[in-house]
Amino acid sequence: MHMVVLTKGVPDFREGQVSFDEDGHLERGKTPTVMNPNDRFALEAALQTRVRHGGRVSVMSMGPPGYKEVLQEAMETVYADDLHLVSDREMAAADTWATAITLSAGIETLGEPDVVFAGFKTADGETGHTGPQTNWCLDMPLVTHVISLDIDEEAGTLRAKRLVEGDIEEIETVETELPAFVVADPEFEPSYRTAGERLTLKDLREETRARAQNYEEHLTVRDHADINVDPDYIGLDGSPTIVSSVDPIPKAPAEREATMVDPDDTGAMQDVLTAMQSAVGDGDAGDAAAAGGD
């Protein structure tokens, strides 16, 4: 069983400023980047499949060289057997369509996977287009908003529960043939039914964390020539989307102040206790003080 998981680096909004060029394109090389949060659910779905059916999980991304660390994050925090980055200047400033063409060509260099997983949408663009568009290029059955799944290897089928139009109140069960493309919903929750599966999960987690320490040994980087795509159809040249304007992302203001208190400073601790008493009442604060003394 071979699973491919698509992931993407997104701006780390916790870092404050996000850099754009004069044309309104995000300068990813100058912006702190983390793995897209929604992609974790796709990784968890692939890991569950790996636990139950064996095989291997390949994680792929398209982006600048700095995305190597995004792939490392995927390997370390969830799971990956091998990592794949498609990257060169010809791919820069791609919209979702040009990205999908690039990713689908990258996937084809790995052979024909049994399942391709993608996250629901990214934290920057929030279009939710890249997964389904990549699937369109690959011409696989597509199941979106998946919240649970299982695979029957003998029958060659995938059975999934999915939210109908993203509505958590309406769930349907669908079945399709493999190979298939799965878009995991943020409501996805992995399930490990037996002690054997939980032990396998524990072992795989330990293995992937160890592997991530030397992730470059498991990383393959390919450019547009390696994946056999025409530069006219990727990157900015291959992107029909026009960005009319971009609003800067302001740093969120702090809503409250924090005061550092040395626990050995009796006077300062008394001030804290007094503040607690005024906020919650003498009886509750006394209970809190007694608990602290224990």
Automatic annotation (TrEMBL):
<feature type="domain" description="Electron transfer flavoprotein alpha/beta-subunit N-terminal">
    <location>
        <begin position="23"/>
        <end position="208"/>
    </location>
</feature>
<dbReference type="GO" id="GO:0009055">
    <property type="term" value="F:electron transfer activity"/>
</dbReference>
<protein>
    <submittedName>
        <fullName>Electron transfer flavoprotein subunit beta</fullName>
    </submittedName>
</protein>
<dbReference type="InterPro" id="IPR014730">
    <property type="entry name" value="ETF_a/b_N"/>
</dbReference>
<dbReference type="Pfam" id="PF01012">
    <property type="entry name" value="ETF"/>
</dbReference>
<dbReference type="InterPro" id="IPR014729">
    <property type="entry name" value="Rossmann-like_a/b/a_fold"/>
</dbReference>
<dbReference type="InterPro" id="IPR012255">
    <property type="entry name" value="ETF_b"/>
</dbReference>
